[in-house]
């Protein structure tokens, strides 16, 4: 039986308190499901924690991350705590799955920020097992007793009508799928694409606004990381680890190249530029252009 939400969080807190990552050790994130079983369509919780040097900057995946075979419902992040073993960051993800596989595994990364890039360090895979409500109870064998009295005959069931109804339903459903199946699938792909784009726009706009209003270089760095992670999901390429030169090789655009160079000079030189907000707007427009091309590609590509 699935445990209560309160019990899950108690288990999660006990798990992260025993993580013993020291200052000089390699970063090893810990990812665990807070229950050992799952039911189709019902939430399950996954804890992610990492202990690291307080000087190291760590980012956790947000709702734009691909949690396959799970879908994200919500994320709850906990405040960092620091002691003589280092800083401990942790979060709990509420997930849901419609997969019917007996065992379903998940591993997640934490992103370690360096001067020139952001490195993904993955947890070991953890698994949950599917609960199937398909137990059939054994039926006791009925004993036969002779019956000599006459009984009225029941009316005979018309199986031809049943078979005809089933055939009609199958024909209608098959016809709908034949005519509209491709459009339905495309619309579902477009809905997921739009949802991820809106989440990216909200995150990027918030960081860009903070960087502009507060002249905060840290928020500008985080905005660049969000931008690269979003492009990585759109293009299926490791943009999070690309340098500016590698990005330009994959996205030749003079305005985009100029904006990236300007942001590099701000981030690595730690000097605020009056063109910072303008450069971030150029990056935002470039990602939006790629998103629109992706939508057009889905609409124009015939289904096999």
Characteristic key phrases:
304 residues, alpha+beta, three-stranded mixed beta sheet, 10 strands, 21% strand
Fold and architecture overview:
The chain has 304 residues and is of the alpha+beta class. The chain has 6 helices and 10 strands; from the N terminus they run αββββββββββααααα. It has helices spanning 5-17, 159-214, 217-235, 244-250, 254-269, 276-300, and strands spanning 30-33, 37-38, 44-52, 57-59, 70-83, 86-97, 103-106, 109-113, 118-122, 126-130. Strands 1-3-6-5 form a 4-stranded antiparallel sheet, with helices on one face. A 3-stranded mixed sheet has the order 2-10-7, with no helix packed on it. Strands 4-8-9 form a 3-stranded antiparallel sheet, with no helix packed on it. Helix 2 packs antiparallel against helix 3 (217-235) and helix 3 packs parallel to helix 6 (276-300). The longest helix is centred in the middle third of the chain and has 56 residues, at 159-214. 20% of the residues are buried.
| Global mean pLDDT | 81
Instruction: Report the total helices.
Output: 6
What coarse outline follows from CA principal-axis ratios? elongated
- The main sheet orders its strands as 1-3-6-5
Number of strands: 10
Strand and helix order:
HEEEEEEEEEEHHHHH
Percent helix: 40-55%
pLDDT < 50 stretches: 1-24, 134-139
Describe the largest sheet.
4 strands, antiparallel
Q: Gap between N and C termini, in Å?
A: 42 Å
Radius of gyration, CA atoms, in whole angstroms? 27 Å
Strand proportion, as a percent range, falls in: 15-25%
Structural class: alpha+beta
